[in-house]
Design goal:
The structure holds 2 protein chains of 2 kinds. Chain A is built from 12 helices and no strands. Chain A is mainly α. Chain B has a domain of 174 residues: MetI-like (MetI-like fold, Orthogonal Bundle). Chain B is globular and about 75 Å long.
Chain lengths: 307, 286
């Protein structure tokens, strides 16, 4: 049996050559990504220029130019959403980047205890975001949640975390930070352990304190990785959906409607698919500009360091 | 083991105490939500009504698990769906990803086409997935694949392929050429070299790629909910449906949450080394 398989492999190879086989190797993956990613991506660009609401018609309607994009200017919910989402992304990215770095810095080193600690610290990022939301909805429940139970126990006020518009946003930031600090942590931990030890030794021999080494050696050397981390975090935070979906479902009222949640609601709940495609593309272009700017900045830092 | 003296964690005693305390608090904050989840999945339903039920249930019940795991219940089907989707996604994504990465690493294409293809795959990571969720839903409807495993699996494969490709690409590029060359001298064709020499030697990388792919597929919510709402419903979609209900279903919700979370936690702890390598690939080097 095995011999027959190899024989036919050799036959195939003689027939189409090594280059042919290597080219054939590349076909399935490219086909899948084109069908499931790039085609829908450009199809959504197309439907953002037509009039199409799934509840009214199963087929795309006529060309309407930039009408769907113009509609964004009069969408009151959307306008609140922009600011809220950016506020959320900056708060979450800032807090998780600082926390993740500090944790990575403090747990550098070898040894069993540290290794176990590092593994535990990674856990929140590998579990399902919808599970994270579900868990935290219980944690923050006003009446029977454990957090309020503890707060009441030590005589502090027990607020309605997810029911109050302002506190609900703060809560979502806290949950996002809990979930994604591990991402920052794991990248910085790897970067810290791969720093050239000669440089650090040299600074030590020169009598630099650990604070000076951190400020003048470690942080500058980690800047390129740091920018990459910030970029990924901003991108993910700007598009947060799962947590909002499972904790507040955008509420109370519209208080925690983030950009992705509004796109989801427009597209898969109200079926205004051309409008949701238009918001998606506006978001996408915004994200691309941000990614481009950060990458250019990173290249400049690297070049400056290399010089 | 030499301690890196540049780290604050190895300073004088008061410093060490503060650092240790900080890390311990971080560990507690990380683990507390899991503790509450596991506790609530074992808590008798009447305790959910009380304001002072305690952080851990006073009595344990397994009724929610019996409910979720009973073969004639509706949730068992969902668990099965999740297992099928995750397994299929992992197999297809790792296979297609390895093949593409090997092709990219070995085939000399004109016009730096290999770089272009590699970067194009990377782009998939950088745009909002919500932008294609709805067109993908329309596309699957037109294909007649709406609400099938295939629709969910294809979406998951397309989203995990970039990670697999980039992970495997660096391994294939670093793979010692001499081994392949000496096999070639012995008359080993490309297919034999790839399947019986290269692949077995890159098992650690394949394990890393498989782990990341499986975790992603097991956890994914957006596409699963867009194209697999009923027949192909997975656990994350099912648990998100609890949002419409009030505290009365916390027991079932926690049991389902535990079933989603626990296998991933256990695997992450066992395969910690592979996981960290996968999560940090690219970011640190590049």
């Amino acid at each position: 049996m095995q011999r027959a398989i190899w024989a036919s492999a050799d036959w195939l190879e003689e027939k189409i050559g090594e280059r042919g086989i290597l080219a054939a190797f590349m076909v399935p993956a490219i086909a899948i990504v084109i069908v499931a990613q790039f085609y829908p991506l450009f199809y959504s660009l197309y439907i953002s220029f037509v009039d199409w609401t799934l509840t009214r018609s199963m087929e795309p309607g006529g060309f309407v130019g930039f009408a769907n994009y113009a509609k964004m200017g009069t969408d009151g919910v959307l306008q609140q959403t922009w600011g809220r989402t950016i506020w959320f992304a900056v708060a979450s990215t800032g807090a998780s980047t600082i926390l993740g770095f500090v944790l990575a810095y403090l747990t550098v080193g070898e040894g069993r205890t540290l290794r176990i600690a590092r593994t535990i610290l990674i856990l929140p990022m590998v579990i399902a975001p919808v599970a994270v939301g579900t868990i935290w909805r219980m944690m923050l429940s006003a009446r029977v949640g454990p957090i309020n139970e503890v707060l009441r126990g030590i005589g502090l006020p027990a607020p309605d975390w997810l029911g109050d518009p302002t506190l609900a946003m703060v809560s979502i930031v806290v949950i996002d930070v809990w979930e994604w600090t591990p991402f920052v942590f794991v990248i910085f931990a790897a970067a810290l352990s791969s720093l050239p030890s000669e440089v650090l030794k040299a600074a030590e021999v020169d009598g630099a304190t650990s604070w000076q080494i951190l400020k003048m050696v470690i942080l500058p050397m980690l800047a390129p990785v740091g920018l990459l981390v910030v970029m990924f975090r901003l991108l993910d935070a700007l598009l947060t959906l799962d947590i909002v979906f499972t904790t507040t479902f955008g509420g109370p009222g519209f208080a925690t409607h983030t950009l992705s949640f509004w796109i989801y609601q427009q597209g898969l709940r109200y079926f205004n698919i051309s409008y949701s495609a238009a918001i998606s593309w506006a978001t996408l272009i915004g994200c691309m500009v941000m990614v481009g700017a950060l990458l250019v900045w990173r290249a400049r830092i690297s070049r400056w360091q290399g010089a | 083991m030499a301690e890196p003296a540049w780290n604050a964690a190895y300073g004088n005693l008061p410093k060490r105490v503060v650092v240790t305390l900080f890390v311990v608090v971080a560990l507690l904050v990380t683990l507390a939500p899991f503790f509450i989840l596991f506790g609530n999945s074992l808590r008798p339903s009447d305790e959910f009504m009380s304001e002072n039920a305690g952080l851990w249930p006073s009595q344990l019940t397994f009724e929610y698990y019996a409910d979720v795991l009973s073969t004639n219940g509706s949730t068992f089907r969902i668990l099965l769906n999740s297992i099928i989707v995750t397994t299929a996604t992992t197999i297809v994504s790792v296979t297609a990803g390895c093949l593409l990465a090997y092709g990219l690493a070995r085939l000399r294409l004109p016009f730096r086409l290999s770089t272009v293809i590699g970067l194009t795959f990377l782009v998939v990571r950088f745009y909002p997935k919500i932008a294609i969720a709805i067109p993908y839903f329309v596309l699957m409807r037109d294909f007649g694949l709406r609400d099938t495993y295939a629709a969910v699996v294809i979406a998951h494969v397309s989203m995990t392929l970039p990670v697999v490709v980039w992970l495997m690409l660096s391994f294939f590029e670093d793979f010692p050429r001499q081994i392949e060359q000496s096999a070639m001298m012995d008359g080993c064709g490309l297919l034999r070299r790839f399947f019986s020499i290269v692949l077995p030697l890159t098992t650690p990388a394949i394990a890393t790629a498989a782990l990341l792919t499986a975790f992603f597929s097991w956890n994914e919510f957006l596409f699963a909910s867009a194209v697999g709402p009923l027949n192909a419903k997975t656990l994350p979609v099912a648990i998100s449906a609890f949002i419409t209900d009030k505290g009365t279903v916390w027991g079932q919700m926690s049991a389902m949450g535990t079933i989603i979370v626990l296998p991933v936690m256990v695997l992450a702890l066992i395969a910690q080394r592979y996981l960290v390598r996968g999560l940090t690939a690219g970011a640190v080097k590049g």
